């Protein structure tokens, strides 16, 4: 395998998606807050201490980008989306049905015009930025497509859906600028919406619910591109395309072929984190549609769903296989998803989590010397 120069800009050769297992102390503190035993201020101080600890651990392992593990969130997407103007939480009739397990009941709805003004996660990022030191502070937020897909719209708020698309993209433009002004140079958009378009079964289900998969594909692309259009040149924006991640289970199956021309040829992002940890994600053949030398592909070959470590030589062989379609210099390595997309987390221990991330670093160091 040809060797490539180690890169000093994101996404990095050894990278991570973002969320980390909530510590016992975090879980206990959040429960105490819910029961009225501690204040919001006391909870935040505990979160601060735990985030400092896990950031130090990420540095020790050798990661170049550090996250706050999404320790202040219960869900990877709802918490951020509820912070947008015009969006509110509500208790849904049921949770989201994963493979053999269902989430807690929670939903979001658009009750007024969408905007981004005084979002609480700006302060969350500023704290991470202060403690990151010489490392890159990576911020993760849900893609705007997640509001289009998960959000209900109250009657009369947006009679014309095109107006909602426009306001949503404008809100994300403001978000990107605000995070940039706070020091963020590495922003990731997390997105499960694309996975609905990866299989005929899911597309047929969408049609039965009154959606047009072709229209959705065009809308997803335009909304993202409009949102990132004015980003500063020195800000790297990546997207993680996820097939669902809740308590080590999943939502979707299907390779990238049905969306390959869109995500690889039309999305104006700097990198794509792709799940490739099992057969549900298909093969590397769709990577032939990568037509930009500046698009970085992060191969999610290390699973975050269980603790057993992958054989390092097998992972290296898969990277070599992917390099037949995309130049090795454009490839990176990461887990296929975060370790705790919701506060419940996947079914592995914290030490196994760190072993997984250390495994990513060690393999990447061998491949890209």
UniProtKB/TrEMBL annotation:
The residue ranges of the Cobalamin-independent methionine synthase MetE C-terminal/archaeal domain are 16-364
Q: Which residues form the signal peptide?
A: none
What Gene Ontology molecular-function terms does this entry list?
5-methyltetrahydropteroyltriglutamate-homocysteine S-methyltransferase activity; zinc ion binding
Q: What is the native source organism of this protein?
A: Terrilactibacillus tamarindi
EC id? 2.1.1.14
Classify the source by domain of life: Bacteria
Q: Give the CDD domains listed for this entry.
A: CIMS_C_terminal_like
Which key words tag this protein in UniProt? Methyltransferase, Transferase
What is the uppermost EC class here?
transferase
Give the matching InterPro entries: Met_Synth_C/arc, UROD/MetE-like_sf
One GO biological process this protein is involved in is: methylation
The residues that cross the membrane are none
Name this polypeptide is given: 5-methyltetrahydropteroyltriglutamate--homocysteine S-methyltransferase
């Amino acid at each position: 395998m040809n060797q490539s120069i180690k890169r000093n800009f994101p996404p990095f050769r050894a990278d991570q998606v973002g969320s980390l297992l909530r510590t016992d102390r975090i879980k206990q503190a959040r429960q105490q807050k819910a029961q009225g035993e501690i204040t919001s201020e006391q909870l935040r101080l505990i979160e601060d201490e735990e985030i400092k600890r896990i950031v130090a651990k990420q540095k020790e392992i050798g990661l170049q980008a550090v996250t706050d593990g999404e320790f202040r969130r219960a869900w990877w997407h709802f918490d951020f989306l509820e912070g947008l103007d015009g969006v509110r939480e509500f208790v849904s009739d049921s949770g989201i049905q994963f493979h053999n397990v269902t989430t807690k009941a929670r939903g979001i709805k658009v009750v007024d015009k969408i905007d981004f003004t005084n979002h609480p996660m700006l302060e969350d990022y500023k704290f991470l930025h202060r403690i990151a030191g010489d490392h890159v502070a990576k911020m993760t937020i849900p893609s705007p497509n997640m509001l289009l897909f998960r959000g209900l719209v109250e009657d009369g708020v947006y009679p014309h859906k095109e107006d909602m698309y426009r306001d949503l993209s404008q809100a994300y433009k403001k978000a990107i600028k605000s995070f940039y002004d706070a020091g963020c140079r590495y922003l990731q958009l997390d997105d499960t919406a694309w996975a609905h378009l990866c299989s005929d079964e899911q597309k047929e289900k969408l049609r039965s619910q009154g959606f047009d998969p072709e229209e959705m594909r065009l809308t997803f692309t335009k909304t993202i591109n409009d949102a990132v259009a004015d980003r500063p040149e020195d800000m790297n924006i990546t997207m993680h395309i996820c097939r669902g991640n809740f308590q080590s289970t999943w939502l979707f199956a299907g390779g990238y072929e049905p969306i390959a021309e869109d995500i690889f040829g039309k999305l104006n992002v700097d990198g794509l984190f792709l799940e490739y940890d099992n057969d549900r994600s298909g093969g590397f053949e769709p990577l032939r549609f990568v037509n930009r030398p500046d698009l970085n592909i992060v191969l999610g070959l290390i699973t975050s769903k269980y603790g057993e470590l992958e054989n390092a030589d097998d992972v290296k062989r898969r990277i070599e296989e992917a390099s037949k379609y995309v130049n090795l210099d454009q490839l990176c390595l990461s887990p296929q998803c975060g370790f705790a997309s919701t506060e419940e987390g996947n079914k592995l221990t914290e030490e196994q989590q760190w072993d997984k991330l250390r495994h990513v670093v060690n393999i990447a160091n061998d491949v890209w010397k």
